Amino acid sequence: MKIVFLLSGKTSEDYARKSIKLFEDRLKHYLPFEIVYLPELKNPAKLSEQEQKQREAALLEPWIKPENALVLLDERGKEYTSEAFAAYLQKKMNAGLRNLVFVCGGPYGFDESIYKQVPERLSLSKMTFSHQMVRVFFVEQLYRAMTILRGEPYHHA
After folding, report:
1. Are 123 and 25 in contact (CB under 8 A)?
2. In what order do the strands lie in the sheet with 2-8?
3. In the list 90, 107, 131, 152, which could disulfide-bond 147, CB 3.0-4.6 Å?
4. Sign of the torsion angle spanned by Cα atoms 89, 27, 33, 55
């Protein structure tokens, strides 16, 4: 199974890019992993919240296909402990999925059309984090889950 982390727009902060790269490189020792950046919206300040979500939905549509199991990173999603997230990933791997695609949307969340097509949602916390931090937290938790599944000491180091 390949895991894809689909991001709306670039990672703009240097600290975040470096942290993401660190975990991205580590993850590739465990399973195929790829970060895909959807194009940034042009002139988002001139668009309403709804227009932004609709345009982001149009960029996400090509990813909604049978070989991709999508999971939206969303504040209303299911929360896991690190151990439970590792077990969740193991279950997905055992299911024989081709691609597990985690989606980090734009600043306003997802368009209703996306919520209707993609029912699975994951929340990293009840707290609100910047999109830059969410990216770092997610790839770190993904790496942590892989070390938990392999019984490696990272989780308790």
Report:
1. no
2. 33-38, 2-8, 99-104, 68-78, 121-122
3. 152
4. positive
pLDDT of residue 9: 85
The number of domains in the chain is 1
- Residue 16 CA to residue 135 CA, distance in Å, equals 8
Tell me, yes or no, if the pTM score tops 0.85: yes
Question: CATH code at 30?
Answer: 3.40.1280.10
Strand partners, 109: 106
Length, in residues, of the chain: 157
Cβ pair 60, 7 in contact under 8 A: no
Q: How far is CA 157 from CA 25, 94, 112, 152, in A?
A: 19, 28, 41, 9
The residue range of the domain holding 139 is: 2-156
